[in-house]
Amino acid sequence: MTAPTRPIPPVNRRRRFDLRSTALFFVFLAVVVCALGLVARLVAGAVERRPAWVFVLVVVAVAGLIGVRRRVHVTRAARRAAAALDEAAREAARELDALELPPQRTAVEIVTDYGALTPEEFEEAIAALCERDGCSAVEVVGGAGDLGADVVALTPDGRRIVVQCKRYDASHRVGSQDLQRFGGTCFTVHEADVAALVTTSDFTGPAVEYAGQCGIVCVDGDALRAWTDGTGPRPWDTAPGGRTAGWDLAGAGS
Prior knowledge:
Helices cover 49% and strands 10% of the residues. Strand 2 and strand 3 form a beta hairpin. It has helices at 19-49, 51-98, 119-132, 176-183, 205-214, 221-229, 235-238, and strands at 136-140, 151-154, 160-166, 194-199, 217-219. The protein folds into 2 domains: 22-98, no CATH class; 114-238, Trna Endonuclease, Chain: A, domain 1 (3-Layer(aba) Sandwich), CATH 3.40.1350.10. Helix 1 (19-49) packs across helix 2 (51-98) and helix 4 (176-183) packs parallel to helix 5. The chain has 7 helices and 5 strands. With 254 residues, the chain is an alpha/beta fold.
């Protein structure tokens, strides 16, 4: 029977002394010490001979260090300002995108078959005629509570025109009561310089008489077709002060 053998721990071997490496280290250290001493001696001599220059160099060095630090601070501040401006621009863009622009009234194509239109479409068609013939600030305001005004605009010569639109069948003539209701608001409430009632049908005799007394321009179906075709006068041309003021205020109606 053989006895178990114990593992022999490794023996720590000491590093051998290297004379050459040690000598080179001390030589390098001596060179560094000599160089530092030479620099110190030169600085001391310069201070002794030219103390003002040394002071200037020190001041310049300190100023340079301060300038570098300030430049770093300025750069950081500029970056922060740029980031803030960029964020503000983005916020402003978001606000502009969020704004709801008021709906713009689209111009209606000029039509000739007015009898086929609804009352609302007829108002849009009259507004389109006004725009075509040079009116500005044209608005369709007809509806509940309009007090007789369906279309308002500024004529090419700057007068305010208020138009009431009546899309009636040929058998339904505009009577004096319609004119009286319109005449009671067109000048006093809507401050019209030109008041016109436009219809696809015709006017009764009393209606034409009342319109002549109040200065309301009556445009019947025939006069409307002539206005549309460009062969007849425009409503503001036949009103008092218009280019053809001598024309019968009732247009072609009777």
